[in-house]
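We emphasize that the prediction below concerns an isolated chain of 282 residues; any contacts that depend on oligomerization or on bound cofactors are therefore not represented. The input was used exactly as deposited, without trimming of termini.
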Amino acid sequence: MRNQNVDSRPARIGTRLGSASLLAVMILALTLSPTRGAESANKRPAESVPEITWSTTINHFQIDNNKFLGQRLTVRCPPMPKELELQTIFGTDTYPSETPICMAALHSGAVDREGGVVTIQLNPGSEWYKGAERNGIASGDLPKTERSILILTEENTAEADQLRMEHLPRIDWDTRFSQTGLANRKLVGQTFAFRLSAKPNDRRARLVYGTDVYAFATPIGWAALHAGRVDSNGGVVEVKLNAGVTQLTGSTRNGVTTRSKRGDSRTIVFVPKQRDASELQR
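Result of the prediction step, given as a token string:
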């Protein structure tokens, strides 16, 4: 019996040591895990550009609607499948809104058959779409459609900016991003622009969560004022829809006090201000 007792003690000791070692390893793993400690409050999520197919149109993103005129979409076209049958398209540089994005981008020269990143702008339809043969694709002529997409390039961006200003949606200080129709999860990573009116003198601040990174249901005007992107005169605000964060932290800035809360499924951030409020025609 003594021999059995003596033999069992090392086994029990080994078990305790093994359990302690396992616990230490687990604690170390949790400590080094990138999801603990490394993610600070209000940390901006990594940016992403959605990859589409060669048949994808803007309807996939649910923005082929007049209320989204002037908005832009950035996507990545994959390499063109060798077996892909080229679809008939219409127009040159400007195409009907139902045109597959990558086909239009290839025809315009924004991407080649290896794919690439392209940005489009939703505009009113053209009076006439003039076809042309470009980059191995022949497009046809077509009468006016209700909406069109413009493939943005360095050469046409300035003109596109002017056209965009005529159609950007106007919002007031109580408009929440979640009310714009652009909070769709498929649009995470995209940037949208709005024309914010001047703040009424008697308007009281609304509830805002976050600092720099804000809850996606936040009133755009008050968050933009807190972020320093506008003043009480309003102006053009560009808002990027991002993925969620684990924590939103409040602060006081520019006369606006925001609150803290647990993370949100989606968030918004404001891109650097590029235009003055004086550019708006109120």
